[in-house]
Amino acid sequence: MGAAPAPLFFANECLPLDRQDIELYHAGMNTKNSKYETCATDAAESWIRAQPHALRMEINLGYPCNNRCMFCTEIANRCGEKAKQAKDLLTTEYVMQAMAEQRRHGAQHVTFLGGEPTIRPDFLKLVKYARHDLGFSTVFLTSNGRMLARPQYAAALVKAGLTHLCLSLHGHTPELHDRLTGSPGSFEQLLTGINELRKLNFPFRLTSVINRINLSHLAEMARHQLELEPLRIAWAYVRPAGGALERMEEIVPRYTEARGFMHQAMRIFDEYRAIFTLAGVPLCIMQGFEKYCDELYWTNDSLRREVEKPGERLFISAGHGKIKNNACLKCSRVQICDGVPLEYAKKRGFEEFIPISGEKISDVSVFTDQRMKEE
C-alpha cells in the first residue's frame, strides 16, 4: 500500500473561549464568531480519528448515503469539493493503512461511520481486514440498515467479522420513518434486515434522532423498539447543524416543548427496565431521568465537561460544541452537565433552562446506572 496522503490524526476539540467569546455570550450571542463555525464543522472534516486513551478509532468512510434524512448534519457535504476530497482520500488502501497503523499503536476497537458505510463496494473487505487480519477485538458499524435486506448480506457481514451493530430507526411506522429519511421503503428494508439479524442470533442496537416531526410519537416509538428486542437503545436530540440548522423551526423543537414527550417515553423504558440512553439533552430537562443521560457515561478522558478560566466562572464542554451561561452556574448539576449546543443557544438563548437548586454535584455516579454502561 502506498503512503498515506494525509495525517491519520485529526483534532476534534473546540477552541478555548477568550474574553471576547465570554462577552459575546453574556451579551446574548448576537454576533457571529468564526471560531464557533470551526467547532461546528470539525467533525465533518475529521474522517479518521484516533482516541489513544481508550484504544479506539473511528473512521468516517465518506458522505454518500442511500437515505436523505432531513436532519442530516452532512447533507451539504454529499456533493461538491468536500465529497470529492473524501472519495479521493478514503481509498481501500488508505483506510486499511490507517487501521493497521492504529492497531500497531494498540487500538482494539474500530467504528465505521458515514454517510452509509455499507454502500461502499469494499466494505466487507474492510471489515474482514479489521477483524481477521488485524485482530481488532471490536468492529462496530453504525448503519441505516437498508443493505441488510439484501439476501445473504447480513450473513456476509457477520462472517466478515462484524462484532457490533447500531441501526438507525426514526419512527414506528413506514410513513414516519420514510418521511424523515426521505427514502420510501427504507422502514420495511430496515425491519427486513433486523429479521435477518435475529435469524443469525446477532445482537444489534437501535438509535433514533428526536425531532419535531417524530416528537409526539416518542412513546409509540419506545414500545415499538422494545418489541424488536435490541441489545440497547440510544436516542439523541437533533443537533442544529446541516439540514436541521437550515430548517431549524421545522425540525428542532425547543427543549421545553420536547420535555413532556421525552419523559413519557422514559417512563416506558423505566417500566421495562430497558438499557437506554439519551444524548444531547441538558440535565435540567432530564430531571428525574438523569440516569439515562448519555453524557454521564463518558469518561473524563473523552469528554471535558468543564473548562474554568482564571478569574472567570464560565463552564464549557470541550469537544462537543456546547456551552453554559451565567444562570447555569447556579444549577446544582453545572459541573456534570454537558450544556446546550452552541447553534441552539445562538438562536434561542437560555431562558427556557431553569437552574436546579441544591448542593453542587461533581460526581456523576450519583445518577449513573451500571446497566447503562457500554459493554
Write up what this structure looks like.
The chain has helices at residues 19-26, 34-45, 81-89, 92-104, 123-133, 153-160, 174-181, 186-199, 218-227, 243-246, 248-251, 255-271, 342-348; strands at 48-51, 56-60, 109-113, 138-143, 164-168, 205-210, 232-237, 276-279, 316-317, 322-323, 340-341. The protein is an alpha/beta fold and 375 residues long. The protein has a domain at 42-302: Alpha-Beta Barrel (TIM Barrel), CATH 3.20.20. The strands form 2 sheets. It has an 8-stranded mixed β-sheet, with helices on one face. α5 packs parallel to α6 (153-160). It is globular, with a radius of gyration of 21 Å.
What does the radius of gyration come to? 21 Å
Class of the domain at 42-302, according to the CATH hierarchy? Alpha Beta
Overall mean confidence score, pLDDT: 82
Q: What is the CATH architecture term of the domain at 42-302?
A: Alpha-Beta Barrel
Helix fraction, binned, reads 25-40%
Total of helices: 13
**How widely separated are the two ends?**
34 Å
Q: Enumerate the strands of the largest sheet in spatial order, edge to edge or round the barrel.
A: 1-2-3-4-5-6-7-8
CATH superfamily of the domain at 42-302: Aldolase class I
Shape: globular
| Uncertain parts | 1-46, 309-313
Largest sheet: 8 strands, mixed
H/E topology pattern? HHEEHHEHEHEHHEHEHHHEEEEH
CATH topology of the domain at 42-302: TIM Barrel
Strand content: 5-15%
The number of strands is 11
Classification by helices and strands: alpha/beta
